[in-house]
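// run 5 | inverse folding | seed 20
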């Protein structure tokens, strides 16, 4: 992942070699060509420091990651981070001590949250080795990609990108 000061960024988080944990990466790859002229699309592991650096200066940020909350695989969660705390959700992809949830709360404490930070969590079921997502997660990843395309189109009218 590289530092990007674009006004709008989509960050797909995960590990594409751990089955459903690849959902965020899959969404980022699907969106990259469709948003290339308007929104920066990055892939990340979810490490807290890298996320804070990646969204520095951005007005609009969407994070997409696989999550574990106990809901059925494929369930889509959507959070508006400046307006609400991310709770009762585990972001299993990070192998670091600080991951997505901690990055958001650290940024909140340091007053470094982007003005618009949306998190899409796709409930995973299988986080074991493998490159294929489960059917429910794959369907939800496609739906999240479509939702992000819609949101990104509305950004274009709000900020110069």
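// decoded
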């Amino acid at each position: 992942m590289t530092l990007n000061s674009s006004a709008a960024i989509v960050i797909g988080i995960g590990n594409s070699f751990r089955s459903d944990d690849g959902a965020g990466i899959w969404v980022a790859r699907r969106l990259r060509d469709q948003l290339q002229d308007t929104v920066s699309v990055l892939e990340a592991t979810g490490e807290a420091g890298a996320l804070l650096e990646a969204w520095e200066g951005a007005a609009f940020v969407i994070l997409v990651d696989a999550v574990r909350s106990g809901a059925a695989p494929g369930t889509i969660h959507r959070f508006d981070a400046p307006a609400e705390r991310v709770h009762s959700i585990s972001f299993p992809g990070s192998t670091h001590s600080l991951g997505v949830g901690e990055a958001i709360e650290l940024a909140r404490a340091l007053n470094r949250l982007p003005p618009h930070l949306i998190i899409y969590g796709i409930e995973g079921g299988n986080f074991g080795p493998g490159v294929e997502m489960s059917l429910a997660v794959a369907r939800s990843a496609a739906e999240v990609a479509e939702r992000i395309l819609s949101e990104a189109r509305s950004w274009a009218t709000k900020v110069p990108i």
